[in-house]
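Sample A.
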Amino acid sequence: MTTSHPPTWSELGAASRGRKVPPVPTPPGEGSTTAGISQHEPTASKAWAPVALVLIAAVVVLVVVGLVGMVVALA
């Protein structure tokens, strides 16, 4: 009984595609190289969302007032 050998890269056509090194899965020890390096950052404050909405609403109101004023001035 003979053992079949795995096909070489030239047999698979990898040489014609320019591939030099066969792709291999990442070893388990190298999988997460940044684990444990960075510190946990504090959660962002929730107070900015209402302030941002109020500011956006104020700008929209000012633009609408300006546009209405321009229409009234043309009439």
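Sample B.
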Amino acid sequence: MAFSKHLIKMNEASLHPPSLVSPEADDAEIPWVLLDHKAYVADRCNDTTAVSYSRCGKQIQVSFFAARPPRVSYLCVFSRCPADARKGDEEEIIPIEPQVIATDDNLVLLRIIVCPEETLFDGADLYIYRPAGDGGTVAQASRAPP
């Protein structure tokens, strides 16, 4: 059974991530976090921001925002068309909230739909996201092979 991209809509609240907490509010290290199972769709960047590309050439940006438990940490995902495909300054719309499929230590497996084709789920790409660490490592987002 095929699902039309018009049958499933993104929740409007997914476009408005929680307010950022001031870094001065809590300087202590956070040993573990609770991570929201859906990512927000927002153009927010920080030191954990990583960039990758979808199979249809769209830029995917992923950023992590940590919160001390019991607050929930979250990811922000954003997509841009390649510069040569843009009409003006418009960004590419992500049709449904990106989902956290799994986590392990500092790795996150995300399902992001930015290339909806005949069916909604054919347009899904999987990404492995690793935020930047204290050792000076660079944040990474890599599209997993199909």
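B remarks: The CA atoms of residues 51 and 140 lie 7 Å apart. Residues 1-5 have pLDDT under 50 and may be disordered.
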